[in-house]
Amino acid sequence: MSNLDPITRPARFLRLIEVAGNLSSTLDLDVLLNRIVHTAADLTGAQEASILLYDENNEELYFQAATNMDSGLMRGLIVPVDGSIAGKIVRERRAERISNVSDEPQHFGEVGETTEVKTISLLGIPMITQDKVIGVLEAINKQVGEFTQEDQEVLSALGSQAAIAIVNARLFQQSDLIAELVHELRTPLASLNTAAHLSMRPEISEEQRMQMAETIFKETQRLSEMTTAFLDIARLESGRYQFRVEEIDLVVLLKEAVNTMQSRLEERNIQVGLDLPDSLPKVQGDYDKLKQVLLNLISNAIKYNRPSGTIHISSQVDGKTINIQIRDTGHGILPEHRRELFQKFYRVPGSDQHATGTGLGLSICKKIVEAHGGQIELDSEVSVGTLVTVSLPVSG
Ligand SMILES: Nc1ncnc2c1ncn2[C@@H]1O[C@H](COP(=O)(O)OP(=O)(O)OP(=O)(O)O)[C@@H](O)[C@H]1O
Ligand SMILES: [Mg+2]
To answer: How far apart are CA 119 and CA 228, in angstroms?
Structure first.
């Protein structure tokens, strides 16, 4: 259905009923939010629609989804409760219908600046469930005429359905994450417990005691890495992570990432070949997060390489995408283990013999790359090596 078609009243309510069933059928928060904003724009005949979620602890609204948001980079953008129309909607728990926002002193322009869509008219409703405001659903720029009372009713009805679905999806996401974390903490905790227990036995030798102390040291280190990485994932998954977006020169970024890893490369006697053009088109993204992706990938290429192996890093432009390739001469990964590589905590059986790790590196990489509108792929041949390709869209 096109946004320009006038939708009759019964047709709209029929559509709402259809959507309501649809909303509760997914527990994937991203998919759900996307469906809601598209339906909101469709049903109200608006140019765009967006969702801001409300964090009552910090009294902040943060941007979560919009019809005109094709990459995930805008997620997490904070909109102040004081000094925004959305904030007013939360505070007063009432819809706002405005024909021209420039007449409103409360209009917060930053979102418009980031999305390059100028807001003229606006219809916003509070999303309330169990007497709590969980966010704001906004439709902007009515395509024909002005937002009507009926638009407001339809959007409110959609908002109530959406609120319930969002709360459900969030609960599910949290319980899922916590269950996974608890599960993964069990193994290192069990070996810590055993080592600590044994080291107290009077009959063990000094040498054995030292060995146990070493196990305790390594396992606590791993636990601490795991919690840091896990927090990273949880932040990325919750959509609360705020990307700092700028124009990035990948040549600079790639060289810097290799420099950062220099001492680890020397330690393992691994040579790196960098094969980069003099310049690459810029990409829009978060410099530190993209650097984290490269560091993770280079770290894998070091950890799972053979002694005195090599790493080859190259980059090419292919139309509107830039491909970055990291190739190593490691032992490779069997096809049956490749499918699960990007899952949280997954490590190929036997990886412990090569290197320590949490199994979170690749899943963090995937989340970051996808938030940038890109893709990550892995190809591997046993005994030959592994090739990871990251593709990112060219800016503009
Ligand atoms: N370049 C590679 N060559 C061979 N195996 C790899 C390579 N990269 C990843 N793997 C395999 O994929 C698994 C998952 O990688 P990932 O980076 O997610 O976790 P990790 O390296 O085990 O831990 P972390 O990155 O958190 O330290 C690794 O345990 C390893 O078995
Ligand atoms: Mg890793």
So the answer is: 39
